[in-house]
């Protein structure tokens, strides 16, 4: 599959409202940063999709970076990097219908471990 850039894709198109896992990017315009966050999150609010794996936010404004991390409805926010960045020690995973749980060594061990508490009164 070749990398693809789509301009003006409607919000209800599967390439916009579903996870494609392909080299595809859709480009949308917005008036300001707050509108960009609202447009990103609106699909779930309108019932169009319910995914939230990761996003990349590119900005020189640290305040915007923190607003994005707080308000965008995803499991991973990468500031000034693509949403494909990850390291094994990080808790990688999404919210809503984007996966179940988190990946990474700590989370894999927790997932495969049954904790049992045993209490013995010898008296």
Give descriptors for this structure.
two-stranded parallel ribbon; elongated; alpha/beta
Give the ordered list of helices and strands.
Answer: EHEHEEHEEH
Strand content: 15-25%
Low-pLDDT segments: none
Give me the secondary-structure category. alpha/beta
How helical, in percent, are the residues? 25-40%
Rg (CA only): 19 Å
Summarize model confidence as the mean pLDDT: 79
Summarize the biggest pleated sheet: 2 strands, parallel
Count every beta strand, where a strand is a DSSP E run of 2 or more residues: 6
Label the overall shape. Answer: elongated
Q: Give the terminus-to-terminus CA distance.
A: 70 Å
Notes on the protein architecture:
The structure is a single chain. With 123 residues, the protein is an alpha/beta fold. The protein has helices spanning 14-17, 33-45, 62-71, 105-111; strands spanning 4-7, 24-27, 51-52, 54-57, 76-79, 95-96. Strand 4 (54-57), helix 3 (62-71) and strand 5 form a beta-alpha-beta unit. The protein starts with a strand and ends in a 12-residue tail after the last helix. The mean pLDDT is 79.
């Amino acid at each position: 599959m070749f990398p693809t850039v789509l301009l003006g894709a409607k919000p209800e198109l599967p390439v916009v409202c579903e996870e494609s896992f392909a080299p595809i990017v859709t480009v949308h315009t917005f008036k300001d940063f707050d509108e960009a966050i609202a447009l990103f999150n609106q699909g779930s609010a309108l019932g169009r999709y319910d995914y939230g794996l990761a996003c990349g936010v590119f900005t020189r404004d640290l305040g915007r970076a923190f607003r994005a991390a707080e308000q965008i409805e995803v499991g991973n926010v990468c500031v000034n990097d693509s949403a494909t960045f990850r390291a094994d020690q990080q808790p990688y995973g999404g919210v809503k219908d984007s996966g179940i749980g988190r990946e990474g060594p700590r989370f894999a061990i927790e997932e495969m471990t049954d904790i049992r508490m045993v209490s013995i009164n010898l008296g």
